[in-house]
Structure formats: C-alpha cells, structure tokens
Amino acid sequence: MARHGGFCLSFFFLILGFVGFFSCTPAEAAIKKYQFDVQVKNISRLCHAKPIVTVNGMFPGPTIYAREGDSVLVNVTNHAQYNMSIHWHGLKQFRNGWADGPAYITQCPIQTGQSYTYTFNITGQRGTLWWHAHILWLRATVYGAIVIMPKEGTPFPFPQPYRETNLIFGEWWNNDVEEIVKQGNQMGLPPNMSDAHTINGKPGPMFPCSEKHTFAMEVEQGKTYLLRIINAALNDELFFAIAGHNLTVVEIDAVYIKPFTTQSILIAPGQTTNVLIQANQRPGRYFMATRTFMDVPIPVDNKTATAILQYKGIPNTVVPLFPSLPAPNDSNLALSYNSKLKSLNTPNFPANVPLNVDRHLFYTIGLGQNACPTCLNGTRLTASLNNVTFVMPQTALLQAHYFNKKGVFTLDFPDRPPTPFNYTGTPLTANLRTSLGTRLSKITFNSTVELVLQDTNLLSVESHPFHLHGYNFFVVGTGVGNFDPVKDPAKFNLVDPPERNTVGVPTGGWAAIRFRADNPGVWFMHCHLELHTGWGLKMAFVVEDGKGPNQSVLPPPKDLPTC
C-alpha cells in the first residue's frame, strides 16, 4: 500500500515476473498477483550444463513479497514436460486446502500446457516462509522464498535492520535428478547423492568452475542486517556459520522467538531461520558456509557450500576468512541448539499451547525392506509410520473427501504402532516388511492433538524433519532414546515452547508436538527428506468440518486441475 499526502494510490508494477495490484481498504490489505511460468532452462554449474525446470527461468525462483493480511494470487502455467504442483510451505491455508499444493493430496497436478491459480489469504502470519514444487523431486530446482512483512506500522520485536537478504540453501546434481531417482527406484536403493550444496543457487568458489557462481553480500561497517535463511535442500540438515560474526536468532518458521546469540545454526529441510548479524568486524571478506549434519554412518553429500560477506570498499582480491563450522556429527551441539529455541510468548505474540489433550497419538518412524523381484538385492528400501508405508492415490484426497468419493482412502491409520518394541535399542535387521495403504487419520474439528514422533533403529536411527501442512504446532518436548509416557510429559515445556511447521526428530530419539485441529480439510504430514517421503514416510489427517459457519472446507475453485 502506498500513501502520499493522505491519498491512497492504486497502481500496477512489474518486477521479476511479479504483477502487484494494490487496493485501498480500511484494513490496509492488498491483493498481490504473480505469474509463475514453469519452464525448462539450460543452467551451468560445476562445469556441467543441463536443462532444469524453473519458474520464470530463474534459479532459485522469484520471491513472493506480501504483508500480513494480504491476499495473494499466483497463476501457475506449466510449460514443462512434467506434471507440476506448488506448495506454499508454512502458510496455514485456513479452510482452503485447495491452495496448499501437494500433488494427489489436495489437488491433481497441473498438466503440461495447463494453468491453475493459487489464491490464498495471509492471516495472522508474518516472517520468512518458502514455496517449492510438491511432486516427484522437482523441488531440486523449483523453489523460492516467501517474505511476509508485518502489518503497516507494526515494528519487528527486535532491532530494525538496515537491510535484509535471503539465503536459500539447496542441492545440485550434475545429472538429471528425475533420471537419477528413477535409477535408484529401479534398483530399490537410494539414488546418487548430490554433487554440491548451494547458497542462492550457487555452490561457491570451493567447487570447479564456480568462481562466477558465488553469492556475495555487501555490508557497511557498523550496520545490522537481517538474513532470512531457508533450507530448501532435499535430503540434508545443515549447519551454517559466518567467519568472525555471531548470529542472533530472532525467528523460526515465521514465528518470533526469544533472541539468542550463537556462532552457528542448525536448519533442517523445510525449516526457515531469521538471524541478525552486525557488521562490526575489521572490514574484509568473510565466508558464509554451510555443510551437512549427519550423526550416523549414512553416506551424505558432505561438501561445503560458501558465499561471501564483503565489507564495502574491500577489493575482490582479498582472500576471505573461513568460519569454524561444527563437526558434521556433533549431536550434542544439534540438541543444545534446538533446546535454545523458545517462543516469544508476549501479549502481542502469545504462545497458545494446548494444555489439555483430547487425542494422544504415538507414531514410530521406521525404515524397512519389502520384496522386489526386479530390484538389485530382491528387496526395495522403504519407510513407514507405525509400520504403514503410505501409497499415493491416483486422485486428490481432498477432492475425494469433499465430494465423498469412495474407494480412494481409508480412515484407519493406527494411533500407535501395531507392536511395541525397544524402539532405539540395537539395530533391527530382520522382519523389516511394512504394510502398504492409503490410510488416513480422522481428527475431530477443534480438538487438541498431541503427537509423539519416535525414531527407531529399524535398519538405522536417523534424524527426521517432519512437516505438517495446514498448521503450526508447538514442540513441547524432545529427548534421546525411547519416549517414556509416564516420566517425559512431566518435563514438557507448556509455557514458551517453539512454534514451528517442521520439527527435527532427534537421531534415536523423539519429539512431542501439540496443536489444535481448527483447520478443516485433508492435511499432509511427511518427512521432509525427499528420499524418505518417496519411500512412503508420510500420512495425512482428515480434520472434520465444524458446525459453525466458518468451520468447513471452502468450495473448490473452478480451475482446480483434474487427474
């Protein structure tokens, strides 16, 4: 909204594929319009050129800018050879699952040559979120930031930065990602890992042919900067640090937290973190670096991506200083970092933690093996929640639910595992078969839910970032080992726990989350490691309609894609 001398101006402007229409209403809300053309473009990284799927030919894609209270319309036209759908990660989409984006969950994908307009309101949210393709592994290149500014005249609850910058972490494969995944699936094994990590699509000068593919950020001595950090990597939790500079963490997953200062952060795929940095060091050039956290012997892309923080007036010939990153397997640092995250919990930004629980759920996270005569070892690696490997339907679950279409899914997803066992004891390598099904869990409208996600040693323990669509939740507790339903709840933080949309379940441990089911619809919950999602580490909740006038799923838009 632009104001000049008390007059309201309405205008259009075009920038980076962005068309914004600003209208004047008493609530200061605007309508932001974007055109996303999904198109293939040749890109070169690490001395390798290849065609990649992009939005508007950009890698990463364009940033969505909006204010709290705005309406956003994004018309997505698919010119690529793949079906496409886009998820607006962390936006709650109240009653409006049609705009959520996961293919075959809330919509059929947008087919080649077709368009679909995602229309949604940004209500009660401000901060950094992101968008990405939610079909196949296309989010390897189809992703971008969502920056939601507070309402006009509302300050940040931390010192106003001089400038701000987005840092989006990703992964790069030299070969065609979809082909690599196809080969892995045919063998029943994980596909080849990525060839580099990237910061804003660039791996940095430690990689071949990458001097010119290095992101640089100029700063002025004495000024404070806000970094909006997004982990868009497919399979890697990442540490991040800046040489010589502390980071003050002020927000996670678009929720303000009690600020704390740290030398490095840990960020899982799907998560966002806002940090303040002060340009208070000797003017020079400083590397910003990110590399993988993995505390079990599972092979990962362990290469370090770098970008450069450069003080104004310093020539490019000055060699940047390198930060000291945590050891890749530093579990203690990972646990202690996450324990520092606390909601602001002030009158303006309360933490409305559900204190009474209507529904207790306990889900085990497991890897497994199912028979596959054509695969390399006669078995296929798989993954499950409560021993259920989720099977994707042929039509969208939300449509099936809304139109009461039978035979698409069942409502018998188990509230707890079929057989209790010592979840995090010695590795279990026998009886690794899982059951297959499109099984959903039904939740009563406005009921309070507590879900304990328990990692297991089926094949191997591992840290898993879990994302729930349509909701934020409070992480009331985490721990290492087996969850103790008698002792552990006594230690829950019900005062100022972190509020997130994606939680890292610790390696060989558990995380307990709580939320109020006040958003009707079908909402996906899955591991945000793309490998595990593809193996079936996912499920969905059907949150029933309430009885009130604004408590039911909105009717579907007319241009909703069909399967």
TrEMBL record:
UniProt-annotated location(s): Secreted, Extracellular space, Apoplast
Cofactor(s) listed: Cu cation
Highest taxon above the source species: Eukaryota
Reactions mediated catalytically: 4 hydroquinone + O2 = 4 benzosemiquinone + 2 H2O
InterPro entries in the cross-refs: Cu-oxidase-like_N, Cu-oxidase_2nd, Cu-oxidase_C, Cu-oxidase_fam, Cu_oxidase_CS, Cu_oxidase_Cu_BS, Cupredoxin, CuRO_1_LCC
UniProtKB keywords: Apoplast, Copper, Lignin degradation, Metal-binding, Oxidoreductase, Repeat, Secreted, Signal
Annotated signal peptide: 1-29
PROSITE patterns with a match to the protein in the record: MULTICOPPER_OXIDASE1 (PS00079), MULTICOPPER_OXIDASE2 (PS00080), PROKAR_LIPOPROTEIN (PS51257)
GO cellular component: apoplast
Transmembrane segments: none
Primary location recorded for the protein, binned into one broad class: secreted
Family designation: Belongs to the multicopper oxidase family.
NCBIfam families: laccase
Entry protein name: Laccase
